[in-house]
Amino acid sequence: MTIVAGQVTFLVTAILLGIIILVSINRSSSGSWTPKIRRLAGLDAIEEAVGRATEMGAPVHFSPGIGNISDDSAPQTFAGLEVLAYVTELTAKYNTEIIVTIRQPNVYPLAQEIVRQAYIAAGRPDMFQEDTVQFLSNEQFAYAAGVMGIMNRRRVAANLMMGAFWAESLLFAEAGAQIGAIQVAGTAAMGQLPFFVAACDYTLIGEELYAAGAYLSQDKVKLGSIAGQDIVKGIAMVIVAIGSLLATAGSNIVMELLSK
After folding, report:
1. Residues 135, 105: contact at Cβ < 8 Å?
2. What is the crossing angle of helices 108-121 and 74-94, to 10°?
3. Over the chain, what is the mean pLDDT?
4. What is the per-residue pLDDT across 164-199, written as a single tens digit (0 to 9) for each?
5. pTM to 2 decimal places
6. Domains along the chain?
7. What are the DSSP E strand ranges found in 165-201?
8. Reading across the β-sheet that carries 60-65, which strands appear in turn?
9. Helices (H), 57-192
């Protein structure tokens, strides 16, 4: 087998990084090491938001974003769906209605089954209704209009937005602010974060969204994976720092190694 010139370092690095993550997962799963994720106030506030909706007798609205599951927005969408499972179990615990709005057709059956299974896990399968998860439109602003209409008509007490968002982010956040809903948002779309930060009570920024599933479930495999990725990032930062110092001193050895 011939390895393409310039890809040797990439191959070796990929193998080493994979080993580091697998070792972290194995150690976490075996119980020999329990990674800790720092407190994420936005995720801790979700139960408060659901509790407020329960006290007011109003529904909770959840949107997993407008991203797909077959393009580069898929990681954000899946992260949002993980949070959806947790939120649904909370609403079952407090006997509170949840309204889930969907834009993408291929996300709809996933969200529907996640909600159904969450109700079953909570011992409340009777709470699932066919209109709990609603597919509104695969057109961006038609979906946005539908979401804002539901929020205003139903006067939701909590507005939770977790996933990939674009221009509709401010529309959703302002609609929620106008009706006085507690709002918790999370996205890795950097261009939309200023709007969420300005109009929402809590915001998960970037990779905090990806860590949400592990944080909420405290699943050892997920925690190990997150910890392994952090170790990898730390190693990358050290390599960059060493390379920068050596380059400043006139040595390109790190660059030469990385280019092999």
Report:
1. yes
2. 30
3. 92
4. 999 999 999 999 999 999 999 999 999 999 999 999
5. 0.88
6. 8-36+220-258 (no CATH), 41-210 (3.40.50)
7. 182-187
8. 133-135, 98-102, 60-65, 158-164, 182-187, 202-205
9. 74-94, 108-121, 140-154, 169-178
